[in-house]
Amino acid sequence: MLDFGFDKMALIGAVALIVIGPEKLPRVARTVGTLLGKAQRYVADVKAEVNRSIELEELQKMRSQFETAARDVHDTVHKEFNETRDAIAGGMSSLGDAGDPPVMTARDPSDPTPHYAGSRAPAYKPPKKNWRVKRAAVPAWYKQRNGVRMHAQSGAARVARFRPRGSNGSAI
User: Fold this and answer.
1) Which of 8, 113, 149, 171 has its CA 20 to 30 A from that of 90?
2) Model pLDDT, residue 60
């Protein structure tokens, strides 16, 4: 790469002043500056493009490695599933009468969910929620206790509400 020190730049400036002349030197210096700026931007763009292509190649390698790992995991899980299914099918045929009612099996007593031998667990049912009811993060009773306004009220209504009352109950 070109390495210009201060002494070399001063020598180039002096020669340019003599050759070009003092009246054309500022315009030439501006032109040279813009050309150098364009060259630097071009070099930066080329470097960025090279870096992007290198990163793209690395990402493609990582993608292929991830796909092979996922394929291996899929094959292993599929193989284990088939082996387990075959083992269960072999065990179920040796049980005999399939019309027997489900029997509770011994499990951890702290587990509240029942487990029945030879049957599937009941399907998950999401809790029923009323989507029309808005649920706030802060409970309404907490807001009421701390005096948080929960309903919008106009200025006139607020004045009428808090206006001092006379002895007969009417506003003064």
Assistant:
1) 113
2) 94
